[in-house]
Design brief:
149 residues; alpha/beta; globular
Length: 149
């Protein structure tokens, strides 16, 4: 089997997801692969957005559109570089996590998708499904589930 050329990882800004980013970055560095970091987001709308804008005032731009995802990607990229990844691309996708990550994996021709294990053993994960398990079922390519919790 050849080394991975494109490793994709998803992040939601949680410490657990940043651990997955760091693991993916170490693997990408070892393989000399490109690292693609994806962040799915659903922007606030309606009353939820109005409440946030009232509370945040001039800082409200932080919750509008893709701004939170873009900040998450900046942090993830910094953490990936610290782990030795050299070629890094990031993308914010407006969608639910599983369809967004599967779509990005296909678009970037990923050889491997890396996800954290958060949600795999929870009751909600067993009943409703978890992002790691759903990615593993739907991605159609190698998936590495790293221990992050």
């Amino acid at each position: 089997m050849a080394a991975y050329r494109t490793v994709m990882v998803g992040t939601d800004g949680s410490e657990s997801s940043y651990s997955a980013v760091e693991g993916a970055a170490r693997l990408a560095a070892a393989c000399g692969a490109e690292l693609v970091i994806a962040c799915a987001y659903m922007p606030m709308r309606g009353p939820e957005l109005a409440r946030a804008q009232d509370q945040l005032g001039a800082e409200a731009y932080q919750v509008v559109g893709s701004a939170p995802a873009e900040e998450t990607l900046r942090t993830a990229t910094e953490r990936a570089r610290a782990q030795g990844a050299e070629t890094i691309r990031s993308t914010a996708v407006e969608d639910e996590p599983v369809p967004a990550l599967v779509a990005v994996a296909r678009e970037c021709s990923a050889d491997l998708v890396v996800v954290g294990n958060r949600g795999l053993r929870s009751l909600a994960g067993r009943i409703l499904g978890s992002v790691p398990a759903d990615i593993a079922r739907r991605a159609g390519l190698d998936v590495l589930i790293v221990h992050t919790t």
